[in-house]
Amino acid sequence: MLAGDIFRDCLLMGLCYGYIVSLILVSGMMGALLNVSRKVSRKFLHAMIGNLPFVIPFFTMRAAPFLVAAPFIIVTFIASPYSPFDTLRGRLSGLSDLTEEGHHLGLILYAISYTILASFFPSKPWIIAAGVLPMAYGDSAAALVGERHGRTRYGFVRDKSLEGSIAMFAASFLSLALSLFYFSYLYGFAAFEKMMPALAVAVVVAVVECLSPKGFDNITVPLLGALTFLLTDGWF
Predict the structure, then answer these.
(1) pTM of this prediction?
(2) Where are the alpha helices (DSSP H) in 188-216?
(3) Across 144-204, where does the E strand assignment appear?
(4) What are the beta bridge partners of residue 153?
(5) Alpha-carbon gap, residue 25 to 27, rounded angstroms
(6) What is the greatest pairwise CA distance in the chain?
(7) Which residues, in sequence order, are CB contacts of 94 under 8 Å at separation 6+?
C-alpha cells in the first residue's frame, strides 16, 4: 500500500512538473502564435500555475506539494537576469523573456511564496488557495483591466488604478469562493461558512496589491492573503 501511494505521488508530481513546463513553453510562444503582448503571456502563466492547489488533495505524502513548488524557485532564478548561468538561461529563453519583460524578481517571489504555503499547509490546500488564487487570478485581472480600462488613477501610487483594484477584488473573491466549494466537497467543511473569510481576503489583497512595490506583490499578496484567511477563519 505504501509503495502504491509513493508511486501515485511521484506520478502526480511528474504530471505537475509537465503541466508547469508546458505552461512555460506555451506562454513563451503566445506572442508569436496569438499576437498578444508579453504581459498577457506572463499573466496567463501566473493564472494557470495558480491551479496547482486543486491537485494537492490527491497527494498522500505531506512533502509532495513542497516538492512540486520548490524546484521552480531554482528554475525561475536561472531564467532571471540575476542568473550566473548564461548557457542555462539561454535554454530557458521562453521563461527568461517573460521574466525580463516583467519584474525581474516577480516569478521568483511567486515560486517562493507558493513554496512557503505548500510547506506549512500541505493538508489544508484551501489555505494555500487563499494565498495563491488572488495572485493568480486577482493580480492578473488587476493588471489587464488596469492597463486597458484604468481611468481613475491613485495620486499616491504610481501605475495603479481604481478599476484595477476593483478587478483584483472581484477576481480574488470569485476564484477563492469557487475553490472553497471544490475543497468543501473533498474535505467535508461548509463552504458558505468560509465566504466571509474569502471576502476579507479579497479586500486585503486588493489593498496590498495596490501598495506593494513592483514585483513584490508576488510575495505580499499570497502570504498576507493566507494570513488573512487564517485570522478571519478562527485559526489563531
Answers:
(1) 0.89
(2) 195-211
(3) none
(4) 161
(5) 5
(6) 60
(7) 24, 25, 27, 28, 29
